[in-house]
Amino acid sequence: MEKPDASSIGKSWDAFWHGSGDSGAFASGGVSHPVIARFWTSFFLSVKDAYDAPALIDIATGNGALVEQALNILGNETGAYTCVDVSAAAIDNVKRRFPGVTGIVADAVSIPLDDREFDIVSSQFGVEYAGAEAFGEAARLVAPGGQLALMLHIENGSIHKECADSLAAIERLQQSGFVPLSIEFFKTGFAAVRGADRAPYEAAGAKLAPAIETAEAIMAEYGEDVAGETIARLYGDVGRIHSKMQNYDPDEVLGWLGTMDAELDAYKGRMTSMLNASVSHPAFDTLRGDLIAAGLTPTTAAPLGENDGDLPLAWVLVAKR
User: pTM to 2 decimals?
Assistant: First the structure.
């Protein structure tokens, strides 16, 4: 787990959360695998049995996936819900989706709250982005008798592999020049539609053709869902616009391509941060030992997987003070 660049992580995720406010929390806030949802359902049911109106804080909350789970199971009549995220856009979305929640914009290594204030301290694929110090910060917030529940990216697991494939696919597409070549192609194409010389348009098409072949090769190798279907959508939309170019506004098309160029950069940044945040087996053992030293007793500390023999999805660590 590498030392993160907090500012770059914040920027790449802030751009993501700006566009996901109306989505369901699990759809846009993290991984929607049913095994992951089942784990949290089981955990929050145990919380309901063990605590009367527990105060809960969710660290690196994203779009509130865990808060949504907690509210569905524990209801609105429990104790206070607090969400922390480095992204102001994420906190704005969570507060809008769940008006009763307290939202705090803060780095997970420096949360402006008192020690031992919460019965439940949770994080799904979040606290590890802030580096090793964030685990101690999370642990200090656990009240006597409270629990720390973490789901962490696992190195060489199935999600890690998916992120690595997405990063490789995005980098290959960018190296092909797909977006800048598409911009030039449409600039000259729209000019040709208005009566300009077609030679620049045809030349731009010839330059774009290898990048189109690269996009097709990427999808053939990794599948059309690679990188959240970003490459498939971009490829398909370029083809559709070209087929009816006379019906499109040039400024809108070129503006869209500029936005997609920035989106690819942001996606690459998110995939890089995910891979860097993944926790190896030795690092997980160290983390478990550090929590014990901080006065917490692990009750669950293991990989989470769908079936024996499959690559694990995540690390799960639950500990009680």
Answer: 0.85
